[in-house]
Amino acid sequence: MAKAGDKSSSGGKKSLKRKAAAEELQEAAGAGDGATENGVQPPKAAAFPPGFSISEIKNKQRRHLMFTRWKQQQRKEKLAAKKKLKKEREALGDKAPPKPVPKTIDNQRVYDETTVDPNDEEVAYDEATDEFASYFNKQTSPKILITTSDRPHGRTVRLCEQLSTVIPNSHVYYRRGLALKKIIPQCIARDFTDLIVINEDRKTPNGLILSHLPNGPTAHFKMSSVRLRKEIKRRGKDPTEHIPEIILNNFTTRLGHSIGRMFASLFPHNPQFIGRQVATFHNQRDYIFFRFHRYIFRSEKKVGIQELGPRFTLKLRSLQKGTFDSKYGEYEWVHKPREMDTSRRKFHL
Amino acid sequence: MAAAAARWNHVWVGTETGILKGVNLQRKQAANFTAGGQPRREEAVSALCWGTGGETQILVGCADRTVKHFSTEDGIFQGQRHCPGGEGTFRGLAQADGSLITCVDSGILRVWHDKDKDTSSDPLLELRVGPGVCRMRQDPAHPHVVATGGKENALKIWDLQGSEEPVFRAKNVRNDWLDLRVPIWDQDIQFLPGSQKLVTCTGYHQVRVYDPASPQRRPVLETTYGEYPLTAMTLTPGGNSVIVGNTHGQLAEIDLRQGRLLGCLKGLAGSVRGLQCHPSKPLLASCGLDRVLRIHRIQNPRGLEHKVYLKSQLNCLLLSGRDNWEDEPQEPQEPNKVPLEDTETDELWASLEAAAKRKLSDLEQTQGALQTRRRKKKRPGSTSP
Question: Is A118 found in the same domain as A75?
């Protein structure tokens, strides 16, 4: 029996298929599961009794054969449908309906009720009077302390050094096994506004704790995909001392707003456009991608960018109200995988 | 606007920005009420309790040490009084026989004469309960009995009509297996109905039951839950268990007869700040730092019923204990949610008052509008069948 869409190359296989198909037909007819009319199956058509699926064939080889044949047929049908559609579009010309937008996880995202409406007064008041108010009112300018977990290895140390060139007015200190709860009052006394702790595991940095001082929230992130400067391909020369601009992408929910403001408060207010450097925090699907670039406008519409600086990805694990106190602090948001990650289309930032 | 429907709100929530929110779960609406028209962070609500006369008045304790009176009938703040003395915010607010009991963080417990708009600053009674108070709770059966507890401040029961010394002073448990003193941090206290016992939950994730009637001053029962400080607690309608919440947003029901964990409730993402169970229905209202009010069903089956996003961080809540959660049928009012309504329809509605009462209420409910009131609301004589 000739199966439509038989694309097999070897003749031997073809005959085997035919034989197999014929046997299948007889077997299926013999079994007669759910079939009302078993009768004479036309030898040419591939008619199986209804309710029969390829997965019910017990023999693995034959099952695989039937499946590959079905797959090839599907592919051919799909190609034919595409060609037909394309022809129709060309025939219609301008009057063709617009192309349907393909579904992606991002545009299928479940609407989050905490998405901030820019006209909302209550949220605006909440943000205007939260812990970052003094930064956004230009009363304080950031001073950052960068440190690591105890006894860091080379990668982490180099990441800290590179981060301190990216973030202006930041200082790297070696963590001599000191407790964070003891470091924090000292930082507050010396007018630091933020504390960054890079956590290291098995010689690679894997976590970031960002604590706003004096009494601001503490965010704990998972850090992955860390690339130091020498590992970045086609990079530009080292960044200069100019204050970079900041881009915060896609922080739409209330939680996202808080985190976005936290990142914004790391950098001074007045970006020096002469330096043409920009730090980007891009949020997509709850992952925050950090990149540091130098840009140059070649014409009105064309921009060239060079990636400088380290690059890493962050994922928020928890946001704690108050400075670092993981045991007794109150949490504003905690990531709970079994409760929050049930849907692939629901994101929190 | 929202004033008319304020009496039917099921849950009242106080926020960190000073707004009192009334949530109507039947109509799925939430309304904001502020004393001054604008939210102010200095007026962050730290304590809420029902005032005199059933559930018609709410006492709102704010961070600037004022206690505001809010009327649920009218939906407006009626007055406030300043309660100075001590430092810190209110940790407990209670109302007894026309007097107001307040307790602040530094341990000053004062009883004030409750004249609504009177600003006389002399308390009737003042007690020092010790620094670091986390909660003061009034016994619902005996309004003059209060219990206080806090960080390194053991549980004490005070009788406000009795002497200046506490009636019951709890003793700390024995030293642990390393012979170290067990620290004390009582975060929430509840009186168990039907007996003299009290339950406390601590910041060291313990739940303890004390019995003042028994000769031992140490806890009668002690259990632990989780690894994080327990911040709020409430009694269930059955009376045999409590529900506790911790700083990670985990809610658990703990049986007090055995000290066992009965089950957990999912959903919260932030620290639990307020918990309250309905006195007869198996419903639990919870609010926290994740800015969402949740109503869970505690039994058959256990799960989430309602979830309301309220845009500020929520500090405390009051759940209405009334049995009838449906709205009372509305008075026939001019349905002018849109001010473009013409007067002809007004007259029409007015004339159809008696006959079409039930039809009107259905219509208005389906509109889901927040109506303005022209006339003072009269209690309807008959409810619609």
Answer: no
- Residue A19 is assigned to a structural domain of this protein: no
ipTM over 0.85: no
- Interface check B234 vs A, CB under 8 A: no
CA atoms of B140 and B49, how far apart (whole Å): 12
Residues A257 and A196 in one domain: yes
Which pTM does this prediction carry?
0.80
Domain-wise residue ranges, chain B: 1-39+230-328, 83-224
How close does chain A come to B270, measured CA to CA in Å?
A: 4
CA-CA distance, A145 to A29, in Å (whole number)? Answer: 78
Q: Which 8-state DSSP code applies to residue A230?
A: G
**How far apart are the C-alpha atoms of B288 and B296, rounded to whole Å?**
14
Q: Is A114 an interface residue toward B (CB < 8 Å)?
A: yes
Amino acid at A238: D
Residues A303 and A296 sit within 8 Å (Cβ to Cβ): yes
CATH label, B1-39+230-328, candidates 2.130.10.10, 3.40.50.2300, 3.90.79.10, 3.60.20.10: 2.130.10.10
CA-based nearest residue to A131, from A315, A265, A288, A270: A265
Instruction: Please check whether residue A254 touches B, CB under 8 A.
Output: yes
**Longest Cα pair distance anywhere in chain A, in angstroms?**
93
The answer to whether A335 and A220 are in contact (CB under 8 A) is no
Strand order in the sheet with B221-224: B186-191, B198-202, B206-210, B221-224
Q: How far is CA A170 from CA A113, A139, A267, in A?
A: 37, 18, 10
Q: What is the Cβ-side half-sphere exposure of residue B39, based on CA atoms within 13 angstroms?
A: 26
Give the pLDDT band of residue B73 (cuts 50, 70, 90).
confident
Torsions phi, psi for A197 (to 5 deg):
-120, 125
Sign of the C-alpha dihedral, residues A160, A165, A166, A167? positive
Contacts of A217 (CB under 8 A, 6+ apart): A131, A211, A258, A262, A319, A320, A321, A322, A332
- Two tokens, residue A290: 């950090």
Residue A11: inside a domain, yes or no? no
Contacts of A328 in chain B (CB under 8 A): 203, 228-229, 247
Domain contains A51: no
Number of domains comprising chain A: 2
Q: How close A126 gets to chain B, by Cα (Å)?
A: 7
CB-based contacts of B12, cutoff 8 Å, min separation 6:
B20, B21, B22, B23, B48, B58, B72, B317, B318, B320
Token pair listed for B331: 């008075």
Asked if residues A148 and A199 have their Cβ atoms less than 8 Å apart, the reply is: yes
Nearest chain A CA: its distance from B228 CA (Å)? 6
Residue A165 lies in a domain: yes
- The CATH number given to whatever domain includes residue A124 is 3.40.50.10480
What mean pLDDT is reported for chain A? 87
Cβ of B41 within 8 Å of Cβ of A336? The answer is: no
Q: Domain B83-224, what fold?
A: Methylamine Dehydrogenase; Chain H (2.130.10)
Interchain contact, B247 vs A332, CB within 8 Å? no
Secondary structure (DSSP) of B260-275: -EEEEE----S-EEEE
Per-residue pLDDT tens digits for B137-184: 999 999 999 999 999 999 999 999 988 899 999 999 999 999 999 999
Chain B residues whose beta carbon lies within 8 Å of the beta carbon of residue A327: 227-228
- Given a cut of 90, whether residue A200 has pLDDT beyond it is yes
Cα distance between residue B102 and residue A39, in whole Å:
90
Residue A337 and residue A252 in contact, taking contact as beta carbons nearer than 8 Å: no
